[in-house]
């Protein structure tokens, strides 16, 4: 397992971060390229998405906090400056969903998912810099989310708002999502954002809402029978789909633990940890392919999408490591290793760099999918590397790795 630590760091510092430094910086129009094809063909006039920019800011802020390399700080600063200059809505508050290649607003909707990732990125940037103004900006955005997005009647948050924060008629996050007022995905990443900001700054509102978000997951979003996430709901938390997303399940299993640990309520943490192990076991039994890759989607009839996307593979490594930390069950540790081996063999693009968007069930990469785009960012894969290193350090210190005489 110590080899896995070394492999994760090598992947992070020799492939993922250098790729974005080398290819993604937009020297012509500012910020970062909005789209780069798998073969590294650049569309210089591609639109630029909030999620891409926020995830770049998070990634390089985290990298700077870890390694103190000034190049990482400069890249984070570039992302922050572009975010504030072009994505921030100075009139109504919050951040636009999309700008064009020159930074002009293209989609001015305020999707809570996007606001959450901005909070997440600002929190990590604040941690990297200690700049009080960054913290103040993150807290102002939390106030805006709470004022407009929180459902005081039923708990949780609505999905999408117009520029002026009136509720949008079309609530969909993307073309593949359902037009429902509440989703697992938005709540998961708001939980992630609030937990990260609370880790770095004590705040009563964050603490209150983080507790509520955890309870929402335990009470509404996690199916108590199948231990899978329910993906979409109406405002009263009535489910509207039976689809299963294995990637979100394994990602959510560890993000919920992280949030509960930061909150610090022992009884709630105990409930979350028990649930997380059950979620990981369900993914292990139903979502893993024979080669160690994680299949994409299922429903009650079985697998409905057998492709293997880049981000569920990254989350599988972390989620199964987390399940091993919690349970001591060796099959979770072995599965985390197998997940990494699958990534290295099939998902890493050893020719052009970074990771393929997806491979088919038999391991053939889809080279038509972008290497960089509104949803293809250095977040899931870089974060997996950071998490692997941090978690293996903890396990090694506790004497819980192979060769240490325990487990």
Brief overview:
This protein has helices spanning 2-23, 50-67, 70-87, 112-129, 132-149, 184-200, 204-221, 246-263, 266-286, 310-327, 330-347, 380-397, and strands at residues 48-49, 98-99, 105-107, 110-111, 160-161, 182-183, 232-233, 244-245, 297-299, 302-305, 308-309, 358-359.
Quickly list its features:
single chain; 407 residues; 7% strand; disordered C terminus
Describe the structure.
55% of the residues lie in helices and 7% in strands. Residues 403-407 have low confidence and may be disordered. By secondary structure, it is mainly α. The chain has helices spanning 2-23, 50-67, 70-87, 112-129, 132-149, 184-200, 204-221, 246-263, 266-286, 310-327, 330-347, 380-397; strands spanning 48-49, 98-99, 105-107, 110-111, 160-161, 182-183, 232-233, 244-245, 297-299, 302-305, 308-309, 358-359. It contains 12 helices and 12 strands. Strand 9 (297-299) and strand 10 (302-305) form a beta hairpin.
Order of helices and strands: HEHHEEEHHEEHHEEHHEEEHHEH
Instruction: Round the mean pLDDT to the nearest integer and report it.
Output: 96
Largest pleated sheet:
3 strands, antiparallel
- Sheet-strand content, in percent, reads 5-15%
Segments where pLDDT lies below 50 for 5+ residues? 403-407
Strand order of the largest sheet: 1-2-3
Oligomer: single chain
User: How many individual helices?
Assistant: 12
The general outline is: globular
Return the structural class. mainly alpha
Q: Roughly how many Å apart are the termini? A: 13 Å
Number of strands: 12
Gyration radius over CA:
20 Å
Please give the share of residues in helix: 40-55%
């Amino acid at each position: 397992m110590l080899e896995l630590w070394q492999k994760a760091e090598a992947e992070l510092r020799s492939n993922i971060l250098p790729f974005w430094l080398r290819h993604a910086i937009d020297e012509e129009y500012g910020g970062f390229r909005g789209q780069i094809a798998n073969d590294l063909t650049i569309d210089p006039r591609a639109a630029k998405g909030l999620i891409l920019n926020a995830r770049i800011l998070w990634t390089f802020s985290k990298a700077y906090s870890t390694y103190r390399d000034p190049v990482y700080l400069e890249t984070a600063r570039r992302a922050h400056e572009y975010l504030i200059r072009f994505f921030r809505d100075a009139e109504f508050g919050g951040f636009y969903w999309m700008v064009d290649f020159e930074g002009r607003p293209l989609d001015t909707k305020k999707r809570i998912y996007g606001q959450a990732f901005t909070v997440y990125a600002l929190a990590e940037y604040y941690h990297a810099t200690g700049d009080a103004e960054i913290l103040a900006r993150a807290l102002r955005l939390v106030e805006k989310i709470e004022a407009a997005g929180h459902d005081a009647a039923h708990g949780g948050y609505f999905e999408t708002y117009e520029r002026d924060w009136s509720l949008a008629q079309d609530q969909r996050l993307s073309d593949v999502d359902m037009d429902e007022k509440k989703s697992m995905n938005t709540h998961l990443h708001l939980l992630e954002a609030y937990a990260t900001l609370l880790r770095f700054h004590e705040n009563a509102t964050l603490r209150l809402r983080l507790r509520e978000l955890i309870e929402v997951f335990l009470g509404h979003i996690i199916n108590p029978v199948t231990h899978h996430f329910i993906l979409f709901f109406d405002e009263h938390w009535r489910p509207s789909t039976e689809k299963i997303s294995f990637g979100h399940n394994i990602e959510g299993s560890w993000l919920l633990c992280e949030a509960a640990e930061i909150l610090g309520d022992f009884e709630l943490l105990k409930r979350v940890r028990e649930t997380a192990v059950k979620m990981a076991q369900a993914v292990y039994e139903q979502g893993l392919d024979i080669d160690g890759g994680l299949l994409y989607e299922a429903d009650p009839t079985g697998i409905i999408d057998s492709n293997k996307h880049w981000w569920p593979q990254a989350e599988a490594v972390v989620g199964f490591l987390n399940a091993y930390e919690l349970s001591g069950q060796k099959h979770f540790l072995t599965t985390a290793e197998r997940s990494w081996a699958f990534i290295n063999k099939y998902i890493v693009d050893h020719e052009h760099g970074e990771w393929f968007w997806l491979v088919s069930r038999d391991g053939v990469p889809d080279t038509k999918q972008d290497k960089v785009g509104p949803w293809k960012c250095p977040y899931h894969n870089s974060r997996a590397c950071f998490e692997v290193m941090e978690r293996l350090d903890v396990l090694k210190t506790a004497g819980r790795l192979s060769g240490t005489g325990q487990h």
